[in-house]
Amino acid sequence: MAIARSAKMAVEECQLQFKNRRWNCPVFDGDHGRSVFGKILRKGCRETAFIYAVTSAALAHAVSRSCSEGTVYTCTCGQRLKRSTPASEWDWGGCSDNALFGHKFAKDFIDRVEKGRDLRSIMNLHNNEAGRVHVSRKMHQECKCHGMSGSCTVKTCWMRLPEFREVGTMLKDRFDGASRVVQDNVGNSRRVQLLPSDPNHKQPHSRDLVYYESSPDFCERDSVTGFRGTRGRLCNATSIGLDGCELMCCGRGYRTETYSARERCNCIFHWCCEVTCEICNRTRMRHTCL
Amino acid sequence: MAWMDASSQWGQDLIAMEMEDDYLERRYYHDDEAESGYVDYPDDYPLDDDYGNYDPYDAYYDDEMYYTKISASELFDQRIVPTVSQACQTIMPLLGMCFVSRITSYFVAEVLHGSAVGQFIVHSTSAISGLVALHWFFRENLVYLVMLGILAYLLLFVTWCKCRGLSGVTVAFVTVVYLVTCELVVVKETEWHQIRGAQMILSMKIISLGFDVSSGAIVELPGVIEYSGYVFQVGSVMFGPWISYQQYIHLLSSHKVEKKLLFYWVCKLAKSFILSVVCIIISTCIIHWLVLEYSFIWLLAYRDAQSFRFSHYFVSYLSELTLTMSGLGTTKNNGDVRWDVTVTKPYHIELPRSLVEIVTNWNLPMHYWLKTYVFKTARPLGNFIAIVLTYAASSILHGLNFQLSAVLLSLGFYSYVEYVLRQHLSKSFDACILAKRCKADCEHSYKSTHPYVILVNLGFGLLSVFHLAYLGLMFDNSSSEEQGYSMDHTLSKWSELGYASHWVALATYIFYILI
């Protein structure tokens, strides 16, 4: 169940993070390149990198959480308190393995598919790992001290898994700063390394997203990625950002239409505790790309 | 992305589940690696936080957290269960030691009938079990406590021989010097913060013994064994409460154990235990669950302060538990023995009448100690000096960190202002609106039941709640908690609230001067 939930979580997060971009993380029902995200997975661009990272992170997150909920029976959230060292150094037994278990599970489960030694497999493996690392690194311990007048005689601790929204936001930032890589052909063949395509850049970190192909502009219908283009997308006429009509519609222009919406209005609070509203018809504007 | 293919059509949960089961079976039931259960990280996997200045985003991420309420079952699994089990695992050995001490004193009283050998056994058991408990909690840091104990006994012995009248003052002075040196020079911050509570109890015991010797309340200087039995008495060595030497000596006169008394003893134990568990759950889990981050700032202040208060109640009930377990904490009333040691009264703190009431009920034994050994001793020097000294003693015992001193000083000022203002008002209106509750037969014409009196008292009570939220909010469980809080932390927390409570207190004081 954790796996199904994680796939759903990944899609939701992806769509939320990309809702204001031309490529808005569309999902497909039918047999569309044999995957929900469509043919874009066959590319090696930033968007591909993000999808791999976010699905892998979602799986790690969902499994870690189910671990502490006790719904996955192979990981134990044992209450063993490791007290190897003096009492001042507290180790949390509890559920700290969960992040590791989730990490490992997601690794085995997703990375299994990437058997190749080509750049694409290496890139996918790297991005999968980047997604998981964001989850397990954000799993952190919180403690509280107890003792006479605020001293710290006894300490109680618990683990806290990050909200998946937080992970998604971080991955989106990584997306914006993703590094373009090339395959390192020198050296031994057993371990393929990724090198930045611009030699002046740093070696990509394990938390960075990597890609090797430029993204298409996603303006028009594209049979390679299976993207429908931005025709008919809603845009923001006043914004100069990516969600603004200028950029979103790739300069093709946009259509403005008015429509009436039924909304609650004139709400009054009655003591206590009831709110009564009227229903009003308001005229709203909508812009869609041509 | 083979697995994504399988779940490409939503609603195919079944397939996913089958995959999961199949996968788990293959992976974890026929695999040697299953035992280790850990990730085999690649060599370059950054397990350490050592990124240098690599990532400029990290600080930014940490600030931008998203908080949503977790479900009640998650709260139970992830917070309450671990918290309670950790707390229990930690205190069980202490309770065990207390029980050993209790059983020993009981058998000695039954079998040896208070002979010299019996007394020796009782005192040494008390001291040894106390030291074992200290070692369990503090390991080698217990040395600072033992050193203070030895030092104080030497002083007591010398002053006893030479000049009895100065015992109290000498011991008090040396203890203060010792505490200050330890805190500022010798001991590491984190370690000091850990042993501070126990050190405080020990200092209180030593100083009270010194003054009792001076005043002649204790006729004979206790021997080494009695002394160590007292200062390391297992039931009070860790979390308190402070007990006087006279109370400790009761351990010897273990009363005949009647069935009824045993029943009350068990009742008291159960009551303290349940209350302490409830308080720790409220303190660490419930409050932070109810009020989420990014709520209204005063609500957050109230939450953090309340979490701190409940942590204090936890420790207080725990101290009642340990003291009762070790067989102390009885009062005799007309030959009627009761197990009724009370350390704190949460009711009077959560719904206070005045700040004075809060201060008194925060820690009753400590309040008694300050009143008897500091305030009353210093009274001949004048009321004002006595108050200053009491404040200073309390500050030093609590540790010399800025935060606690600032809180105590503010609290002192607030309660003084409140006390004089309410006294003045009470006189002018002839009503029961004093900081302390009126006695049943007071001479005011407006009694406590008068509607206006109730209203005024309620107003002052709310004012106290406001002050208390403001004063307690920086005992949040931020990262600096283990070392004690810094001055910056305190001031930043207060400036977030615009020093509101200080202004209110100042305004109250000006109002008092004007009328």
From TrEMBL, chain A:
InterPro entries: Wnt, Wnt_C, Wnt_CS. The keyword Transferase does not apply. Pfam families: wnt. One of its GO terms (biological process) is neuron differentiation. GO terms for cellular component: extracellular space. Keywords: Developmental protein, Disulfide bond, Extracellular matrix, Lipoprotein, Secreted, Wnt signaling pathway. It is found in: Secreted, Extracellular space, Extracellular matrix. Belongs to the Wnt family. PANTHER family: PROTO-ONCOGENE WNT-1, WNT RELATED. This is Protein Wnt. It comes from Paralvinella palmiformis.
TrEMBL record, chain B:
It is a multi-pass membrane protein. The keyword Chloroplast does not apply. The keyword Amino-acid biosynthesis does not apply. It catalyses: [Wnt protein]-L-serine + (9Z)-hexadecenoyl-CoA = [Wnt protein]-O-(9Z)-hexadecenoyl-L-serine + CoA. One of its GO terms (molecular function) is palmitoleoyltransferase activity. It is an enzyme of class 2 (transferase). Pfam families: MBOAT. Its main location: membrane. The chain crosses the membrane at residues 142-160, 166-186, 230-249, 261-290, 310-328, 381-398, 404-421, 452-473, 497-514. Its EC number is 2.3.1.250. It comes from the Eukaryota. It is found in: Membrane. One of its GO terms (cellular component) is membrane. Keywords: Acyltransferase, Membrane, Transferase, Transmembrane, Transmembrane helix, Wnt signaling pathway. One of its GO terms (biological process) is lipid modification. Belongs to the membrane-bound acyltransferase family. Porcupine subfamily. This is Protein-serine O-palmitoleoyltransferase porcupine.
